[in-house]
Design a protein that fits this description.
With 346 residues, this protein is mostly beta strands. It is built from five helices and 18 strands.
Length: 346
């Protein structure tokens, strides 16, 4: 047998003999099987005012049997629960019947699954996933795309390249800096198994400051130089992660790994010098060394958990660790950044 896709399979059974494919109708064949555990049976179906025979795909999912007929222009689904009569799932509300409420009613003995019926699409993959979730007895994160908002605090550490030779920079002992991060994200499920592609667009800021006084002489004339390092770094980041969410109920831990690309659209670094002569301080100008590359990249690791609220909406908390370096000039300053954030997905 040859698989020609759902819509063609609902009309004909395609039997391959040598180099020829013969089309057999539902009036000629009672049932047939395809590779991948597809099972089609011939059944009578009302179409308008007439009855016709079609092939319907039959899926046995625990106590449920799902039948699917794919015409040229629409899909029809029929569900049998145990030994109860088969009923059609209504895509549009008809006489008080609607497929989402029908699915909720037949799974009401497991509320954690039943409440997710409102997220089910009128498609074979979505309905099948829902019924398998009921059969497994636990509700994995439902495979629906989400977007959301996030806000957080970040702590950054500046590390200079070991071979850096600028004497004005080597005198400083840089401390960590605390900044903010604001972002949007999208989360697109993959393979209906807890994995998803998680993409963020984030704004973050860092402001490093450091001070150093260098004494040049002692005696009758006291000379010293005050150095003041000041940086203003504002960044648009694009972290891309593969996320796995543990299939639990009200508390869902997740882990994600990936990478991050960053654009420092504000990259301002200055070292101010002040000459001190016998206690009198004079502005001695400033230098503008290149410390950070304009474009950076980094591996990224994240951990967190989310708490479902309503439907696919959830509150989440997470932390990320990145260590970025210049994309065009990797010998410039490196930033190790820990971000703690919270947000809400819709």
């Amino acid at each position: 047998m040859v698989d020609y896709g759902d819509r063609e399979n609902s009309r004909f059974c395609h039997e391959k003999t040598m180099n020829t494919v013969v089309k057999l109708t539902p009036y000629q064949v009672r049932e047939y099987f395809l590779d991948g555990d597809k099972h089609y049976i011939s059944m009578e179906l009302f179409e308008g005012d007439s009855i016709m025979k079609v092939f319907m795909e039959k899926k046995v999912i625990g106590v449920f049997t799902l039948y699917h007929y794919a015409s040229k222009h629409y899909d029809r689904f029929f569900l049998q629960h145990g030994l109860e009569p088969m009923v059609e799932l209504q895509e549009k509300q008809v006489s008080g019947l609607y497929y989402k409420t029908q699915l909720a009613e037949c799974t009401q003995d497991n509320p954690s699954v039943s409440m997710k019926s409102k997220l089910v699409d009128f498609s074979k993959s979505s309905i099948t996933y829902f019924l398998k979730s009921y059969q497994s007895g636990r509700m994995k994160p439902f495979p629906k795309g989400r977007w959301g908002l996030a806000v957080g605090m970040n702590r950054s550490e500046l590390e200079l390249f070991a071979g850096y030779t600028d004497p004005d920079l080597l005198i400083f002992d840089f401390k960590s800096d605390d900044g903010i991060s604001l972002g949007l994200f999208v989360d697109q499920p993959l393979f209906q198994n807890g994995f998803s592609l998680h993409v963020n667009g984030t704004y973050s800021s860092s402001h490093f400051e450091a001070y150093k006084t260098v004494v040049h002489s002692t005696g009758a004339i006291n000379l010293a130089t005050d150095y003041h390092f000041n940086s203003n770094l504002q960044t648009i980041e694009l972290p891309i992660h593969l996320r796995y969410t543990l299939p639990t109920g009200a508390f869902r831990p997740f882990i994600e790994v990936g990478g991050m690309f960053a654009w420092n659209f504000v990259n301002d670094v200055k070292i101010y010098r002040f000459l001190i002569r016998n206690g009198a301080r004079t502005n001695f100008g400033y230098a503008s060394p290149t410390v950070f590359d304009t474009f950076n990249c980094a591996p990224s690791l994240g951990l967190g958990f989310e708490i479902p609220v309503i439907g696919k909406q959830a509150l989440f908390f997470e932390c990320h660790l990145t260590k970025s370096q210049g994309l065009l000039n990797p010998d410039l300053g490196k930033l190790t950044r820990l971000v703690l954030s919270t947000g809400y997905s819709f």
